[in-house]
Amino acid sequence: MTSRWPLELVIDPGRSQVAHEADASLDASGWSAGAPLALLAQPARSGAEADGLFLPEGYEPTYAYPLLVWLSTVPVSPCEFERRMRAISERNYLGVCIPVSPQSEPAEVALQVQNVVCAVRRDYHIHSERIVLAATADGAGIALEVALRHPTWFGGVVALGAPPTSRCLLAEANQLRGFRAFLGGHSGADWSALKKTERLLWTAGLNVRLWQWMEGSRVPTNVWRELNHWLMAGIENEATVWA
Prior knowledge:
Elements: H1 17-25, E1 53-54, E2 65-72, H2 78-88, E3 94-99, H3 106-123, E4 126-136, H4 139-149, E5 156-160, E6 180-186, H5 191-203, E7 207-213, H6 221-242
Parallel strand pairs: 2-3, 2-4, 4-5, 5-6, 6-7
Antiparallel strand pairs: 1-3
Helix pairs in contact: 1-3, 3-4
């Protein structure tokens, strides 16, 4: 199986066309320069973004880790991000958090994600088939749309919040069969939209899990535990398929 992600790190004079497109389409001034977890889709520079990573306990350079790529539309402190990753698992995954604007087009966010993942892969051993795009709250719809537009990039998507309402999610329907999606939300106004999205994706052949929690904006601890089980089940199933 070929890698979904190039090993090339887009830096300096020999940058790829993707890097030039990212420079042209993204305005760095639109992002929070002081955000401690800001791994912006600028041309990545060696060692400049280490603070934006969560490294699992006992990190082994020879093991290819799954990578959880979190999109966030609000500032996330390093402590908060570490707590989230540890609530999922202290040992199973690398994690990275990327600040995005709620007004960003999916193509812009996709370029950010591409550059960040390539930068992380330069310094850490990432399994290219186990990169999962994730987000909570307002970022959930963005993550879902980006992942469904680029299903060959990701091993799944986690969207814990309201889905997008006005855009086509199935533009790449011929590539979505079997794609894994973990949807979640509280029992409020967005639940009906989540149920409709679940049915839509299931009809298109996706492997969809829908999880509900009681009213409240904070994702409860049991959802993080369930997410870990879902992620590991996908890895175990993949191992069985390739055995």
